[in-house]
Amino acid sequence: MGVVNITPDSFSDGGAFLDAAEAVTHALALLDEGADLLDLGAESTRPGSNAGPVGNMETALGADEEQARLLPVIDGILKQRPDAVLSVDTYKAATAQAGLAAGAEIVNDVSGFLWDAEMAAVCAQAQCGVVLMHTRGTPAEWGTQAKLGPSELLATVHDGLQASLACAEAAGVTRDNIVLDPGYGFGKRFGENYALLARQVELLSLGRPLLAGVSRKSFLGRTLAPLHGGESAPVESREAASIAALVAAILHGASIVRVHAVRPAAEAALIVDAILAAG
């Protein structure tokens, strides 16, 4: 899953693809590099952002502006690649509905249906693909949350995903349309992400495929600090670490990996798949 951030402030490449034409060009390049599907996001949910429950007056971006960024990019991609599989990265039901109407086939909700009460019904009506991600709290809260031990963290993620799955099914979303995402970096503090990755395979007990988004995350940069003068490695220096984490994620049960740099990720995935097939 190749990432296309149509935002001015995403942690990894904010502003680089805010222009619709630039975003379309980037998206087409990711497909050429081996992406099987694309995840298009028009609002940053980076740590410290004001993203959060719909109706909260602190929410950083309204649905109208989010759609104004997103819809021209969907249209531009599908005009040139009608068979492209597109995912809309949003927690707002109105934006999900507009994106699906424009030709997207998947809704990737970082809140796991928690931040907009209408989202489950929209996805059920459309019978689209759904990615339900686990998020602990909101981005504004992540820096002050209490640390969790490995078992407590896994139980928190498992129970949260189970609740999101139950919400989706109760609304009429077909179970086979659902993928679950542990939500690396989303309310998990630094080393907690490694504890979660080490035991990710246990989440397969929920009965759905897993998606892992570890690319360029800050916990990787923090681990690389000894190689960068004690400071967290900048985003542009996290690609090799991203590949290492991606390999671990696939070996620990991920069926989909969400990445910024597609070509090296696709190459690594082929090698991991060969190892798994040989085993």
What does it look like?
With 279 residues, this protein is α/β, with parallel strands linked by helices. The chain has nine helices and eight strands. Helix 1 links the parallel strand 1 and strand 2. Helix 8 packs parallel to helix 9. The two termini are 25 Å apart. The mean pLDDT is 93.
Principal-axis shape: globular
Describe the main β-sheet briefly: 6 strands, parallel
Counted beta strands? 8
Radius of gyration: 18 Å
Order of secondary-structure elements: EHEHEHEHEHEHEHHEH
Q: Would you tell me the structural class of the helices and strands?
A: alpha/beta
What is the percent of helical residues?
40-55%
* Mean pLDDT over the full residue set: 93
Number of helices: 9
Task: Please render the helix and strand layout as text.
Elements: E1 2-5, H1 20-32, E2 38-41, H2 63-80, E3 86-89, H3 93-102, E4 106-109, H4 119-126, E5 129-133, H5 150-171, E6 178-181, H6 191-198, E7 210-212, H7 218-223, H8 239-251, E8 254-257, H9 262-278
Parallel strand pairs: 1-2, 2-3, 3-4, 4-5, 5-6, 7-8
